[in-house]
Structures are given as structure tokens and as C-alpha cells.
């Protein structure tokens, strides 16, 4: 098990700096991805196709950050050959940036739905669900990144638990929208855009959970990706 100070005791101060820098870059990427999700949701709800286009353009920057951070991790592995907790940190960062890039992709998909809705006319319903689930998964991403920054396994576990609630909210919202489409088939095209946006938000929640699982791996040294919540809780609470 490690704590937040474990990476500050190397003989090489340069190694300390490299680890701190790559972690900072990952968290900066996370902040940009968070903003991308918020901007995409706002663009959809407000019918702002210009803002949606900006989200799609900014996705290129997210992709570039993923490549750059991955290269940093590769250099550290090659030059420093880290062991134990340092190796787990580099691996966890490398995995987390993949999930962050995919969250950025989902924001881009929501932006695409926003553009299509702005062209076809406002959706008759579904925005309440998008706002609610969007806020929920936005908090999950924020908390997952905070957990990574602090090496906080309790916060990471809380994020993993929230994913189940998002899945339930998503299922309820989709069932409601499908019922609405059956009652008024003229809305099918627009409501499908809403469903695809909700699906992207549900995937954002999945990736936030993945980042939380990387935190638990980093701190506890156990891969919990295929653990249920009960097993994960036991692992976090195991001293």
C-alpha cells in the first residue's frame, strides 16, 4: 500500500520531477475532458451547433495530449526502469489517459447529436434526463480525478459505486423515451439523437469507474477491474 508521500523519497530529484510532471499532465488532460463533457451537454440542451463544433475540434487536442503523456510514460519506463509503487503509478497513468481520451470521444459524440438536433429541430423531451445524468457522470469524473490526485481509495470506491446508479438511471430514461416514441412516432428521429447522447453519458460513467479502479490498483497493488462492488470494498478496507 502507498500514500501520497511515497513518490517524494527518491535519491534522484529528477526522477521525482518526472513522476510529478507526468501525473500533473494527466490531471490537466482530465480537467479539459471534464470541460468537454460539460460543453457538449450545454450545446445539446441549448441547441448551440457552433459550441458543439468547438467541442469536436477540441477533441484533437485531447488526442494529442494522450499521445504526449503516453510518450512520457514510455520514456520513464525505458530510462528509469521503475519498480514497485513507482511502476504502478506510471502504469495507472498510462491506463487512465486511455479512459480520458475515450471520455473525450464520448463528448464528441454528444456534440454530434447536438448538431443533428439543432438541424432537425428541438427534441420534444429528454433534456431533463440528459442534464441529470450528465451532472451525475460529471461529478464521477471529477471525483475519480481527485481520488487519483490524492491516492484516495475510499473516494475511488465511492465513484465505482455511483456507476451502478448511473446504469439504472440510464435504463429508466431510455425506457421512458421509447414509450414516448411509441406514442408519437413522429418524434423517433429526434428522440434517437437523445438516446445516443444518453448512451454516451452512460459510457462516460463507465470510464470514470475505470479510472477509479486504476486508483485502487495504484494504492493497493491489486487489479480490481473484474471485481464486483462487494469484492472491491473488501479490497479497499483490507489493511
Structural descriptors:
single chain; 239 residues; mainly alpha; Methane Monooxygenase Hydroxylase, Chain G, domain 1; 84% helix; flat; PhoU_dom; PhoU-like_sf; transport; Phosphate-specific transport system accessory protein PhoU; phosphate transport
Description:
- The chain has a single domain, classed as Methane Monooxygenase Hydroxylase, Chain G, domain 1 (Up-down Bundle), CATH 1.20.58.220.
- Helix content is about 85%, strand content about 0%.
- With about 240 residues, it is mainly α.
- The longest helix has about 35 residues, at about 85-120.
- α1 runs antiparallel to α4, α2 (about 50-80) runs antiparallel to α3 (about 85-120) and α4 runs parallel beside α6 (about 190-220).
Work out the strand percent: under 5%
User: Low-confidence spans: pLDDT under 50, at least 5 residues?
Assistant: none
The rounded distance between the terminal residues' Cα atoms is 8 Å
Q: State the order of secondary-structure elements, H for helix, E for strand.
A: HHHHHHH
The CATH topology corresponds to Methane Monooxygenase Hydroxylase, Chain G, domain 1
Report the average pLDDT across residues: 92
The CATH homologous superfamily corresponds to Phosphate transport system protein phou homolog 2, domain 2
- Described by the principal axes of the CA atoms, the overall outline is flat
Radius of gyration: 20 Å
Tally the structural domains.
1
Can you summarize the main beta sheet?
none
Q: What is the CATH class?
A: Mainly Alpha
Share in helix: over 70%
Number of helices: 7
Structural class: mainly alpha
Architecture, CATH level 2?
A: Up-down Bundle
The total strand number stands at 0
Subcellular location: Cytoplasm
Function: Plays a role in the regulation of phosphate uptake.
Keywords: Cytoplasm, Phosphate transport, Transport
Subunit structure: Homodimer.
Amino acid at each position: 500500500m502507498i500514500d501520497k508521500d511515497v513518490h517524494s523519497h527518491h535519491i534522484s530529484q529528477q526522477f521525482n520531477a518526472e513522476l510529478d510532471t507526468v501525473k500533473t499532465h494527466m490531471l490537466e488532460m482530465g480537467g479539459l475532458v471534464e470541460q468537454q463533457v460539460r460543453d457538449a451537454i450545454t450545446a445539446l440542451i441549448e441547441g448551440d451547433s457552433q459550441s458543439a463544433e468547438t467541442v469536436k475540434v477540441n477533441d484533437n487536442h485531447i488526442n494529442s495530449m494522450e499521445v504526449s503523456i503516453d510518450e512520457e510514460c514510455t520514456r520513464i519506463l525505458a530510462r528509469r526502469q521503475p519498480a514497485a509503487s513507482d511502476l504502478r503509478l506510471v502504469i495507472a497513468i498510462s491506463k487512465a489517459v486511455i479512459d480520458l481520451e475515450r471520455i473525450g470521444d464520448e463528448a464528441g459524440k454528444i456534440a454530434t447529436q447536438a448538431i443533428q438536433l439543432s438541424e432537425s429541430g428541438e427534441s420534444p423531451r429528454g433534456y431533463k434526463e440528459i442534464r441529470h445524468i450528465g451532472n451525475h457522470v460529471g461529478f464521477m469524473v471529477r471525483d475519480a480525478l481527485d481520488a487519483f490526485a490524492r491516492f484516495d481509495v475510499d473516494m475511488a470506491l465511492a465513484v465505482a459505486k455511483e456507476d451502478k446508479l448511473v446504469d439504472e438511471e440510464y435504463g429508466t430514461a431510455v425506457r421512458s423515451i421509447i414509450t414516448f416514441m411509441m406514442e408519437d412516432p413522429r418524434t423517433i428521429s429526434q428522440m434517437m439523437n437523445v438516446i445516443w447522447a444518453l448512451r454516451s453519458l452512460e459510457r462516460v460513467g463507465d470510464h470514470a469507474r475505470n479510472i477509479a479502479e486504476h486508483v485502487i490498483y495504484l494504492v493497493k497493488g491489486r487489479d480490481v477491474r473484474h471485481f464486483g462492488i462487494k469484492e472491491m470494498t473488501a479490497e479497499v478496507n483490507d489493511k
